[in-house]
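#onboarding

Welcome to the new folks! Below is a worked example of what a typical request in this channel looks like: someone posts a single protein sequence, and someone else replies with the predicted structure as tokens. Don't worry about understanding the tokens yet, we'll cover that in week two.

Example request:
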Amino acid sequence: VSTGRLRAHPRSWGLNPVLRPTAAMLLAAAPEQGVAHLLDEQGQVVRSFKDCRPGPRGLCTARAAVVSAEASRSFTHVWAGGKEQPQYRCQAPERLGPILATSDAAHVVGGAVSGKLYLWQLSTGRLLLAWNGHFRGVTALATVAADGYLVTAGEDAILHVWSFASLLSAAASDAAPPPRALRTWTAHTLSVTDVAVAECGPHSLIASASLDQSLRVWRLADGVRRCLHRVEASAPLTAAAIDPAHRALYAGTSEGRLLRSPLLHEPAAGAAAGGGGGGGGG
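Example response:
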């Protein structure tokens, strides 16, 4: 599922935009039916995208386009121009898992089951760079600090942070050395299943959920390997979210439960309700 406000920028591709929304919309896929739907705030279908069969985190938006990585084949589909069928397809060297598009819709990043990472130019579908990112399959991707950095997570229980400038520099030269991660965090003991970002420039927070039943928080600016905050759950975690104001963490478990943990001190109910003086006994 991909959520958020979509904006039309037809000049990005020289194409007509998929839509011109004026409110937040939800993009959701039904892979078994081979279709994705764009829903408005009332749950009504605004547009459908056929031949769409993504795996987990294999669907994203790129301004006015929709991008999907097929779960069973090594194809990436791009919908633009207001059509139900893909505008074009590009084939990856191997089957992809998660994908994401940069906020300027210039590039798409995909993580593969082998642990490799791939960088494409969205407007042409041209593969710019492939590099070894993880020892096992890539499970989650995110961008942070206005697309300045790429966060990747894998079944190897590792999180990496890559400078996007260094990735583009490596893509521009055949003689460039392989990209090196700017940050590497290894506190998890089992597969990292999801990452979430709360933007604040170099102080942006990154939350990671794991099958080791922990939710951890890292700060982009910190070079240390120790996490800032840790929450232990009673079941493996499969999804993570973080309040944009850095107030709370959220996680979904393999049992279907939703967990919330405060990041900042929350006053007691009596103090929060209160006006005036006394402190609340109790």
